[in-house]
Amino acid sequence: MRKTTILNTTEGNTQSVDVQQYLTDHIGDRFSSEEIDAMVRYGTLIGIDPGKALTVEGQVGGEAFIIVAGEAEVAKDGESVATVGAAEIIGEHALISETRRNADVVATEPTSIIAFTSREFGALLAACPNLSSNVQGLAASRED
Fold first, then answer.
1. Looking at residue 131, what DSSP letter applies?
2. How deeply is 144 buried, as exposed, middle or buried, from its count of CB atoms within 10 A (0-12, 13-18, 19+)?
3. Is the Cβ–Cβ distance between 127 and 119 less than 8 Å?
4. What is the CATH number of the domain that holds 63?
5. What is the extent of the structural domain holding 77?
6. What is the pTM of this model?
7. Which of 40, 62, 103, 107 minimizes the number of CB atoms within 10 Å of its CB?
8. Tell me, what DSSP letter sits at residue 132?
9. With bands split at pLDDT 50, 70 and 90, how would you rate the model's confidence at 18?
């Protein structure tokens, strides 16, 4: 059975989506089919409203996210430092380094993410060695 979820649309409606197809359509050019399969198996697709914080600087991080569609602003010490969008991974640094969040990340438009608890993220990385290597490098680059 295929995994489905309900997402909010930009028009304020909801729609049922096939998670596998949704991820393939939006980020399939950046991840292998095996990585997409693992994301569907371990993660949860969630719709995020503009203005909602995905991470809060200084808080303990219990989840990592991959942005599927939309954008979010990254801010450190209240100052915008980047914009992240589709196929970008956020929140991994706190999980891998077992430290607090090093930035605020706030959705700036309707955004869909695939969310992973620490355990799920570990399982994803164990199942996807290339992704794991890329995530380790990304986390290292985000050291304070």
1. H
2. exposed
3. no
4. 2.60.120.10
5. 4-141
6. 0.86
7. 62
8. H
9. confident
Count of structural domains, the chain: 1
Q: How far is the C-alpha of 142 from the C-alpha of 74, rounded, in Å?
A: 12
Radius of gyration of the chain measured on its C-alpha atoms: 14
Enumerate residues 6+ apart whose C-beta is below 8 A from 117: 62, 63
How crowded is residue 140: how many other Cβ atoms within 10 Å of its Cβ? 11
Burial track 108-139 (b if 16+ CB lie within 10 A, e otherwise): eebbbbbbbebebbbbbbebbeebeebbeeeb
Report the alpha-carbon distance of residue 90 to residue 111 in Å, rounded.
13
**What is the DSSP track for 32-76?**
-HHHHHHHHHH-EEEEE-TT-EEE-TTSBP-EEEEEEES-EEEEE
C-alpha to C-alpha distance for 83 and 108, rounded to whole angstroms = 9
Tell me the per-residue pLDDT of 39-93, one tens digit each, with 9 for 90 and over: 999 999 888 989 999 999 999 989 999 999 999 999 999 999 999 999 999 998 8
